[in-house]
Design a protein that fits this description.
2 copies of one chain form a homodimer.
Chain A (H helix, E strand, L loop, with lengths): L5 H12 L7 H4 L10 E5 L4 E5 L2 E5 L6 E2 L15 E5 L21 H14 L4 H10 L6 H21 L3 H19 L6 H18 L7 E8 L2 E8 L8 E7 L10 H9 L3 E5 L18 H12 L4 E11 L1 H12 L5 E5 L13 H11 L4 H7 L16 E6 L7 H10 L4 E6 L10 H15 L1
Parallel strand pairs in A: 8-9, 8-10, 10-11, 11-12, 12-13
Antiparallel strand pairs in A: 1-4, 1-5, 2-3, 6-7, 7-9
Helix pairs in contact in A: 3-4, 4-5, 5-6, 6-7, 9-10, 11-12
């Protein structure tokens, strides 16, 4: 079934209250662009060359912006040559326009406000921190240090609060430190040593938080072939027998720690949650690189949780974020005991590769340890639901944003269409990647769906 | 004692990591202005007349902004006459420059980003909602409808989730609805009927949330003279005997519902919290107007909580927000059983009146039911700590932001100086009113302080 999503609810509420005098901008310009917040004219002439994996590719950059409608911010204008029309709301869907890996470009307010703040807040961060970084980092080069400095402040705060016996505040401060370190490293593919160091600080910060949480997060190492995969298990307080459990599968360049808010929602609703790093992710990179058969680690995590006496082995589901959303479907195809699956900003395959933001393609090269993009794609040749999705017979929820710049909406629609009997699609017409800009609705919505489906 | 505050910690962390190449903008311009984020030249010539309480007063407005340093946003420039220098970071400290009651002026990004988003998030709202309002409301006239529409969406979400049995999500949605309705009405003094209607929707939304919270918020009416005052009591789960309790006292045009985040912090830390509306606030306005002897209602709330078997009558403290911060000190002076007091963005008196933003002065006229500002001031003639503060012998924590536009920093410093033996002052050099832009540190800090002081 394909059902309407919470955005329809918003549109309905809007319809009830709006009148001709207060038509929101989105609607006034809806004839011009699908999302149509602000219309601009931008040159489509390549203006900059970039190097990745030894190859040189021409990239378009945002310049020559010319207002053709009301602007949120005034901007200096340069006449555009051979203009093409884009919309600033979905600017991050334009190749190279935003989420570029050109670190010397100015920090763009629209990118910060429309993508990074929503993602930060969704993962438990503080928008005041993003505004502070915006005010202190003139270019993306300065982004890592600005975030790391905020992380250091939260570490100091956590230590101070813990010394006074305030566990709850210490835990919250350490979680915020981890988020700051994550944001510090998220654009730093060009500085692998710095990225590794910041990842280490992220891991250490969250590890301080884990035992202080209420209920605590138990650190586990689950067997995976000859190796172990690290994870955190939170069990709800006041259990009366075994409880259902959600396996939380990170995406590209996200990790188990980034599931803090979803884990909190789970335990508040009486569900256990286990988040772990798989190949190419967090603590496991570069020990095991992202490659073929990632779904084996989800099966291993399922096995480990099914063996826990606190968890009901018949009621274990998965939630895969972004790239993890592909893998949870593949896992459901090979492990029929997985009772329900959530594809959270996922995809059918990597067919959108050429249109993905450069930062994301850099991420794939990094996670796979590839020499270049072609090598990365070769290492990920099994990242497709072709030939396996028909084996999925359990319920699947697909959550996606129409403005997703990384995995385009047709990817999610294809998954839902391939599972007509058991998939539910929530497509948010205003949503960015993982619907971070509507995180409250969808994150509670996904956990609630698992709560009633498991 | 006067101790250093968490901002010193941030400065210290900054000092450890910053170097000459990455001096933040604040520091680069520190010679120009105390807070010095962006320097502008603005005319100090009155440009607009406004009417309040039957009197006409000349107000300065933001226009003719001329960049004299790096601008966060480009702006159209008009040459200024008789220029005066202000800083956009503390723009809300300028009389009439922001938080004006001119509703036809454009929605200003700096005001939204620097004051309203931090306050919204501090009180449990979603910055995505503020960005949505920013994108849909071109002027402040459109602000109430845009927020109310978001509130309606959350009401519908709460109903949908509740119908499916998801209490936690329903409670969270109703709380967000209440916050949206609060923000809808916060600037609507010029539309008293709309303001009353939106206040009613705020009250109704929170009332839906209260029994669904975990632990629930119990609605109480406490005796106050011939009348009753409505409030919400949250008791921590898993109590082992009577617990300490925080009485939460709202400020001007804030209400018991706005304490949702602080109440949550309290119960997470094993403290009870009771928030209520006093004269001139929330449900009590206009039944009882703001006037003389407000502190009597704090004493009444203390009496009611001391009588509860779940609460330790010897361990009751207060936290007064903004205007409520004056009243909690007055209450401590007359009720020695109040064991500890937090002045959260409060003041010594209303001596800063002429410099307060017009919106705030409108609020005093509204809350007191006065004819004009002079009448309001006459009705509030006892709002001063003169002659009473020396009777306060219990511990007092004073939390304040140096950039507070409503109650200037000297007000807080005066309170601390008058109580050399028992006051602690946390002055955040970067803080706005109630340090909303550093809410995490100070709100957890205040509750932690009460936790160890009660």
């Amino acid at each position: 079934m394909i059902t309407s999503c919470p955005s329809a609810l918003r549109a309905s509420a809007r319809a009830r209250t709006s009148n001709a005098d207060s038509v929101p901008r989105r609607e006034r310009f809806s004839a011009m662009c699908n999302c149509a917040l602000v219309m601009c004219v931008v040159s489509d002439v390549p203006t900059k060359e970039r190097t990745i994996g030894g190859r040189r590719t021409a990239e378009q950059n945002l310049w020559g912006v010319q207002p053709a409608g009301p602007m949120l911010f005034g901007r200096g204008c340069t006449p555009a040559r051979e203009p093409a029309t884009i919309c600033l709301q979905c600017v991050d869907t334009q190749k190279g326009a935003a989420m570029s890996d050109d670190q010397s470009r100015p920090l763009d307010d629209e990118e910060v406000l429309r993508y990074w703040i929503p993602r930060l807040v969704a993962d438990g961060g503080d928008p005041n921190d993003a505004l502070a970084v915006r005010n202190r980092a003139a270019t993306w080069d300065a982004w890592p240090d600005a975030w790391a400095e905020l992380g250091d402040g939260y570490i100091a705060m956590g230590q101070d609060r813990l010394a006074l016996g305030h566990q709850a505040s210490a835990a919250a401060a350490y979680v915020r430190a981890a988020i700051c370190y994550h944001f510090a490293q998220v654009v730093a593919f060009h500085l692998p040593e710095l990225k590794t160091e910041l990842q280490g600080r992220k891991v250490a910060a969250f590890r301080e938080a884990a035992p202080l949480m209420s209920p605590p997060a138990e650190r586990l190492d689950i067997p995976f072939g000859d190796a172990n995969l690290p994870g955190y298990l939170r069990l709800p307080a006041g259990r009366d027998g075994p409880v259902p459990c959600i396996l939380l599968v990170p995406g590209l360049d996200s990790t188990k720690e980034d599931f803090a808010t979803i884990m909190e929602m789970a335990v508040q609703r009486g569900l256990a949650a286990f988040a772990f790093d798989g190949p190419g992710q967090g603590e496991v990179h570069p020990r095991i690189l992202l490659g073929q058969n990632y779904e084996a680690c989800i099966v291993a995590a399922h096995e480990a949780m099914a063996a826990r006496p606190e968890i009901d082995a018949e009621r274990i589901g998965t939630l895969g974020r972004s790239l993890g959303g592909i893998y949870v479907v593949k896992a459901a195809a090979v492990e029929p005991r997985i009772k329900a699956t959530v594809v959270f900003g996922g995809a059918w395959d990597l067919g959108d590769w050429p249109a993905m933001p450069p930062l994301i393609r850099d991420g794939f090269v990094y996670a796979t340890g590839a020499d270049d993009e072609d090598d990365a794609l070769a290492r990920l040749s099994d990242v497709t639901l072709d030939g396996c999705i028909s084996a999925v017979t359990s319920p699947v929820l697909v959550v996606h944003g129409r403005n997703d710049a990384i995995f385009k909406a047709h990817q999610a629609e294809r998954i839902a269409a391939a599972l007509p009997g058991n998939a539910t699609l929530w497509m948010d017409e205003d949503g960015v990647h993982c619907c971070h800009n509507h995180a409250f609705e969808y994150r509670t919505g996904m956990v609630d769906w698992l709560d009633r489906t498991l």
